Amino acid sequence: MDFNGSDTIPGPRTEDHLPHTAQAAAKIVIVGGFGVGKTTMVGSVSEIRPLTTEETMTQAGVGIDDNYGSESKTATTVAMDFGRISITDQLVLYLFGTPGQQRFWFLWNGLFEGALGAVVLVDTRRLEVSFDVMGRLEERGVPFVVAINSFPDAPRHPIPELRSALDLAEEIPMIECDVRRRSSSRDVLLTLMRFLHSLAMTGSPR
């Protein structure tokens, strides 16, 4: 019974319904270190109200979690973020944002299951975190693109220099973005889809 005394149980909002034209769906994971913008990206681009599992940060994480560059951050994802976006009338992407703190990385394996591809979000203030992230994707055989999230106080470097610093293969796309902007986050996802399509066309292994 709802608060109005009715026996009707409220269902999903109209805007949350899957488009009737959708013919295919794909699972995409958004990964990266702590505070790189994964929750923000899911929230900015999702066409439905995103599901988040953020909890207030406590003293328990002091000395354990590396929050360099994100000292003002007061909440963190402890399980996953979830959202959805229609790339075309026929193709829908389900977005899963992973927790960034390394003590929660054991949850990644389940989130990687069935993933078509991934976006690796990078903060240029903490490039070293990205090596472990990309290594885990390579071990699982999940193709990915790299998106450099533009923080106002982060150092800016040319894409070729960042590619070299990350030891990233030339064929893996790298793009700059601002995950606070829906159009920018969408461009990242479109870059990933084009990359996945090229892999399918050339028969390259995942």
Describe the structure.
This protein is of the alpha/beta class and 206 residues long. It contains 5 helices and 8 strands; from the N terminus they run E-H-E-E-E-E-H-E-H-E-H-E-H. The strands form 2 sheets. A 6-stranded mixed β-sheet has the order 4-5-1-6-7-8, sandwiched between helices. A two-stranded antiparallel ribbon has the order 2-3. A hairpin with a 4-residue loop joins strand 4 (81-86) and strand 5. The N and C termini lie far apart (49 Å). This is ATP/GTP-binding protein. It comes from Streptomyces carpinensis. It holds the Pfam family ATP_bind_1. Belongs to the GPN-loop GTPase family.
Number of contiguous helices:
5
Strand order of the largest sheet: 4-5-1-6-7-8
Give the radius of gyration.
18 Å
Query: Which structural class do the helices and strands define?
Result: alpha/beta
Shape: globular
Largest sheet descriptor: 6 strands, mixed
Secondary-structure element order, N to C: EHEEEEHEHEHEH
Strand content: 15-25%
> What is the rounded distance between the termini?
49 Å
Count of DSSP strands: 8
Mean pLDDT: 81
Question: Uncertain runs with pLDDT below 50, 5 residues or more?
Answer: 61-65
Helix content: 25-40%
Pfam families: ATP_bind_1 (PF03029)
Keywords: GTP-binding, Hydrolase, Nucleotide-binding
Family: Belongs to the GPN-loop GTPase family.
InterPro entries: Gliding_Motility_GTPase, Gpn, P-loop_NTPase
